[in-house]
Model the fold of this input.
Amino acid sequence: MDKSLNYIISPEISEFRKFSPKLKIGVLASGKGTNFQELIYLSKNNSLDIDIKVLITNKGNAGCIKRAQDANIPHKVILANEFPQMKFFEAEIINTLISFDVELIVMAGWMKIVSSMFVNRFKGKIINIHPSLLPSYKGGNAINDALSNGALITGCSVHFVETEVDSGSLIMQAALPVFKNDNLESLTKRIHILEHKILPLSISYAGSMIRENFKDNY
Done:
């Protein structure tokens, strides 16, 4: 057995929930968009009942843009430096998400801290994927921090977003061993494999909660 494939996921959820109509999601991404690509694939082959309404990125050269274009998914580049204050930058994001009637917001490599205004506007409807076993190694250098601190085990987490950075209720985590010969590139690659497993399952779980809450309120 290839030891590099050893991992554990908790909770052990292996099937996607069914949504009719499909769950409407908006994706926020700042980088290459590999998690975004996995969601596109699962959506296109009808494995995961999601309708990706829009991609929003805060980087004009982000790789996720081409992925959206290739999949004919609407996208919008919103640059913070084009707004006089952060609240106006966030207001543009909020208005875009509302205009696309998004039910769930998925932060998939979104490298921008959001304010309480943003979180409270979509309370319980924002999830984030982070490359560590939270609450360990919060922040933007989580994988490197795990290596620097000699961690023997690390992984990734999906959680609901709260105003405190990388906090909020955990939905799912995946853990894997850190090998003596691991470097930033090798460990990042293995963590990305696990991110692609737990993010879609977490979307399915979070979506079912949102739909159930909607039913309870009407």
The first strand starts at residue 8 and ends at 10. The chain has one domain: 18-217. The CA atoms of residues 131 and 156 lie 4 Å apart.
